[in-house]
């Protein structure tokens, strides 16, 4: 197993963005703030909570306050999403084909580990992952490559042996900054809105693992 596929989570394994929007709307309405969907597109999707909260609340949110506000918002998300965990079409079939094809598999997300537990637990991914990293496991968030470099170290491979599936500008940038090949998942952004990827998919239906393996040849 000298090759690996590393998945981001939100927008890559599941279409969670609409549910994050719902949670943030409830969170911000409590504070008399009413962001539009366009504002979420620019300042929420693919961003870490520190950035999102600081942007919409209009001041730097960090330290203990960030932990408390993040917990409030992510708890809302999990409460809403626990009844809707559904993978992007073809994901589970593709994921298990990778395992049968001797790929290592991992998840590297900017979301809290509790969210990863909800999604990967519901989809029974953990027994089939060599690494599962979330926001608590890094000090620098995407587009910094830390989460991908740390994942490569966890699975004992070099960056040149890894292909990343990402859906956001910051996520694609992080994978490229780590020196990895990147497949862009067009779940929440268009090709024009992402850095250049090695190829793009809308979902995993019909995706052959040979196409991924070719990126590492």
Per-chain topology:
Layout (H helix, E strand, L loop, with lengths): L3 E4 L9 H13 L7 H7 L5 H9 L5 H19 L9 H10 L3 E5 L4 H10 L8 E3 L12 H9 L7 E5 L2 H9 L3 E5 L13 E3 L7 H6 L3
Parallel strand pairs: 1-2, 1-4, 2-3, 4-5, 5-6
Helix pairs in contact: 1-4
* Pattern of helices and strands: EHHHHHEHEHEHEEH
Average predicted local confidence, pLDDT: 95
Number of helices: 9
Structural class: alpha/beta
Largest sheet: 6 strands, parallel
Outline type: globular
Strand content: 5-15%
Q: Low-confidence runs (pLDDT<50, min 5 residues)?
A: none
The oligomeric state of the chains shown is single chain
Strands, count: 6
Give the distance, in angstroms, between the N- and C-terminal Cα atoms: 14 Å
Residue share in helices?
Answer: 40-55%
> What is Rg?
17 Å
| Sequence of strands across the biggest β-sheet | 3-2-1-4-5-6
